Amino acid sequence: MKKLFTLAAALVCTLSISAQTVKIMKTDGSTLQLQANEIDSIVFEPAAPSTIVFNGNDTVTINNNAAWTYVASDLSYTITTNSDGTINLTKPQEVYANTIIGTITQSPYTISNLAYDKEADAYVRDYAADKLTTHVTAVNAGKTTMDADYVLTTGKVTVKLDFIGNCIVTDTYRFGNMPFPISSRFKGTSSAGN
Q1: What is the pLDDT of residues 109-130, one digit of tens each?
Q2: Which residues pair with 154 in a beta bridge?
Q3: Is the pTM of this model over 0.90?
Q4: How many angstroms separate the Cα of 35 from the Cα of each of 15, 18, 20, 23, 26?
Q5: Lowest-pLDDT range, 18-22, 137-141, 144-148?
Q6: How far apart are CA 110 and CA 121, in angstroms?
Q7: Which of 64, 111, 117, 130 pairs as cysteine with 124 (C-beta 3.0–4.6 A)?
Q8: Is 140:157 a contact under the CB 8 Å cutoff?
Q9: Residue 90 vs residues 54, 56, 109, 168, 181: alpha-carbon distances, Å
Q10: Would you call 54 helix, strand, or coil by DSSP?
């Protein structure tokens, strides 16, 4: 009798497992229903990297001095998502005309692995340890007064995104042994969010 009860219990468990269904509700409102015995395994794979380009202007202020504020216009900042949830920010070549040392051109560079900070509601990274390099030239009255690669010895960036295609990037950094900081604020939009 004991063996018969054990066999009946095992049969009931097997039948109840094979009779279970898995119901998946999709974001488009449809559902997918499968029998549990049809599923070998479920694997969650990271999303493929995606890239969004934001077009706008970058305003820089040197040494927190409003008189030393300049604008680089018609820029395209690129944000690429990583499979671990971080993002990479690529700043394009930027040209600032009529500065106190002439027209300054800064080469593109990428700041990698900005992590989302819930408290700031933004992607944030102190990238000073990366020792990123950018090439900077300055031309004043037709004469090149600066033409060299500079290490970004300090740098902290914040990228704030919204769901309607707006992006604000604030970045405070220094080139080499520069005695004062540069603060930049890029404001751009992307058609991808609209």
Answers
A1: 999 999 999 999 999 999 999 9
A2: 174
A3: no
A4: 12, 7, 6, 9, 17
A5: 18-22
A6: 21
A7: 117
A8: no
A9: 11, 14, 6, 13, 20
A10: strand
